[in-house]
Write a structure and sequence with these properties.
By secondary structure, this protein is α+β, with helices and mostly antiparallel strands. The protein contains eleven helices and 13 strands. The protein starts with a helix and ends with a strand.
Length: 488
């Protein structure tokens, strides 16, 4: 596969490893010789310091110092010679001392045709690289005088360093090639083991994409890929269960659609019946109006009475039609609910201020003692309509002490708004039907104040559209209607 993770991982690892080996080989060829030379220089300086200290404390000819010097020269492949002012050998280690004495004296007292590159020069010694004409070899040398005036020289063949570098580079190259081959095979095997579970998960995901949820990851490993595999097993089980639930829900939805169609037919029938019910009173109103226009009854007081009746009936029917239209929009979902955060305390206070004339005409005492803001979520205009229906209902049925009390219950995530009026409790058998369309507990009293039996149905539709609770509670001295709104 062109984009196989196994191939990509193998290629990346082998490339990194090969690049690292090539970099080491390049650094080895380019800088190892210089590093060796620097190391030789450090060793020669240390040998110089050791010889100088041995000369100062008189231990230069001791067996212990001689062993130490031989060990130093053997480890670092250098030669050392020390002679006094009479050219007598004081101490030596390494190659033939006679040759070294002759070479040292030539360097001190004679000039020769050899070429020299000065590395370091002080008052006591000089460090150079010498290219000899005699054998064509190069040496790193350090020669000069000790504190007691003796001459010394340390010397090492540069060619041996170069040979060591070449041997090291060849060995590194062979090892690098072998390591690349062996590591490539190991990386191929390891990546195959790593990507095997991933390929298995890929196959499982492909089957799941084809809605085959029987595929399961069978690996027993405990690494992250295995955890992912077990999670995919759980996902397959849940997807299978969810699809089963969706199919069940789909069947229920089909039933709901059929039920909705039936409800739509019922609503059409309901509107047809309402329209039929309105035809007769409208016809009567038209008849009375035409009679008045033709001056059938010449009595002014009678004419005024009939005019008032016509106007009153027309107003009631107009109100009922408007409410029915509002209710119809809410039940059909045509009226958009606009959720916003607002102060319910301010809304109620403003409404009570506007209804002050009605309150005074009804000789009613209204108690609303909430002083601090109370912010809630909902459709502000529809919430005002809910409160208006509750309040006008309370105003129409208030008795005895003629008191209406409005209060809040602030809960953790909700606020309950209560509207209580003193008066007669509602019969218990009527409580479950209060929010049904056209239901009237006291038809005579409802007719008296112009009620249509639709107001509480509108309350129910609005609260259902906002998915909030509402209800009614009987007390010995009155009735309380309530509704809830989210505060968070």
């Amino acid at each position: 596969m062109k984009y196989s993770i196994k191939n990509q991982l193998t290629f990346v690892f082998i490339s990194i490893m090969t690049g690292t080996i090539l970099l080491c080989w390049f650094l080895n060829n380019g800088f190892l010789e210089k590093y060796y030379l620097l190391n030789k220089q450090q060793v020669m300086r240390r040998s110089y310091q050791s010889i100088n200290e041995a000369v100062s404390d008189g231990s230069i000819k001791s067996e212990e110092f001689e062993n130490q010097l031989q060990r130093l020269c053997g480890v670092y492949n250098i030669s050392v010679i020390v002679i006094d002012a009479d050219s007598t050998l004081v101490q030596s280690a390494g190659i033939d001392s006679d040759i070294m004495i002759k070479y040292l004296l030539d360097r001190v007292f004679l000039e020769n045709s050899d070429m020299y590159e000065t590395i370091e020069q002080t008052e006591n010694y000089m460090m150079e690289i010498a290219h000899t004409q005699r054998n064509g070899m190069s040496y790193i040398e350090m020669w000069g005088t000790l504190d007691n005036g003796n001459l010394f020289m340390t010397r090492s063949v540069v060619e041996s360093i170069r040979e060591s570098v070449q041997i090291s580079s060849r060995f590194l190259g062979y090892v690098g090639i072998l390591a690349t081959v062996v590591s490539g095979l190991l990386i191929w095997i390891i990546t195959k083991r790593i990507t095997g579970p991933i390929l298995s998960l890929t196959e499982i995901s492909k089957r799941m994409a084809d809605l085959d949820f029987e595929a399961r990851y069978e690996g027993k490993e405990k690494h992250e890929v295995a955890v992912l595999g077990h999670h995919m097993n759980q996902l397959a089980e849940r997807l299978e269960q969810t699809i089963s639930e969706l199919k069940t829900a789909n069947n229920e939805l089909l039933k709901d659609i059929e039920k909705k169609e039936q409800i739509d037919e019922m609503r059409k029938e309901f509107l047809s019946n309402v329209s039929h019910e309105l035809k007769t009173p409208i016809a009567l109103i038209m008849g009375y109006a035409e009679g008045l226009k033709e001056e059938i009854d010449q009595d002014a007081e009678s004419r005024d009475f009939y005019c008032d009746v016509i106007m009153d009936e027309a107003g009631k029917m107009n109100t009922m039609v408007k409410k029915l239209l509002t209710l119809n929009q809410l039940e059909f979902g045509n009226d958009v609910i606009s959720m916003e955060r607002f102060d319910i305390k301010e809304l109620i206070a403003n409404y009570l201020e506007s209804a002050d004339i009605l309150i005074k005409q009804n000789n009613t005492k209204v108690y609303f003692e909430e002083s601090r803001p109370c912010f809630v979520w909902g459709d502000e205009f529809k919430v005002e309509e809910v409160f208006m229906n509750y309040f006008t209902n309370a105003l129409n049925y208030v008795k005895n002490e003629n008191e209406i009390r409005i209060s809040f219950d602030r809960m953790e995530e909700k606020v309950r708004i209560r509207v209580f009026n003193t008066g007669d409790p509602i019969p218990e058998e009527s409580l479950p039907h209060l929010f049904e369309k056209f239901y009237k507990v006291d038809k005579a009293r409802t007719r008296e104040y112009g009620g249509s039996g639709v107001g509480l149905s509108i309350v129910k539709a609005i609260m259902d559209s906002m998915h909030q609770e509402f209800g009614v509670v009987n007390y010995e001295n009155g009735v309380e209607f309530w509704f809830e709104l989210a505060s968070k």
